[in-house]
Design a protein that fits this description.
The chain has 156 residues and is α+β, with helices and mostly antiparallel strands. Helix content is 50%, strand content 17%. The protein has one domain: Haem-degrading domain (Beta-Lactamase, 2-Layer Sandwich). α2 packs across α5. The chain starts with a helix and ends with a helix.
Length: 156
């Protein structure tokens, strides 16, 4: 009987160890929801921007350059979104750090001190970053935040 009980306990313990935690990620529907929210905010503000979404590792999931938006916004939007995802903080925090004298941060990989990128937090996890580029920096950030707000409304 003792051997049988011990065997059952060992099997249960092995099953517990083999289970992996579930991890949320940005699927196509989530990306489309965020982009629609960001596009709506840009239209409301009557600005054209480049919108970028990256996953938690900074890999590109979506990029769209608005009509008449300068070509350099493609790079800026990607760098803002990547900063937000990898540092798990708005790219504005990077700009603020440099303004306060932390110029060594400019040498950090994927660090981009320019407002407009925000991390995508869902249930305590950062799933990636979203950004906008092409309008004033505070408007870029508001457009990106509108994308996150649209996603969070849908997941509630």
């Amino acid at each position: 009987m003792l051997k049988r009980t011990l065997a059952v306990i060992l099997v249960l313990a092995a099953n517990c160890l083999a289970q992996l935690p579930s991890k949320k990620y940005l699927d196509l529907a989530a990306v489309k929801t965020m982009v629609a929210g960001a596009e709506a905010e840009a239209a409301k503000r009557q600005v054209h921007v480049t919108i970028c979404v990256v996953d938690e590792s900074g890999n590109l999931l979506f990029l769209e350059r608005g009509d008449g938006v300068p070509i350099n916004t493609i790079d800026f939007a990607q760098r803002k979104a990547r900063h937000a995802a990898l540092y798990r903080s708005p790219s504005k925090d990077g700009a603020d750090a440099v303004k306060k004298g932390a110029v060594e941060a400019l040498s950090f990989p994927d660090f981009f001190p320019n407002q407009g990128g925000v991390p995508i937090p869902v249930d305590g996890q950062v799933l990636g970053g979203i950004s906008a580029s092409g309008a004033k920096s505070e408007i870029d950030e508001a457009i990106a935040q509108a994308g996150i707000d649209a996603l969070l409304q849908k997941v509630k």
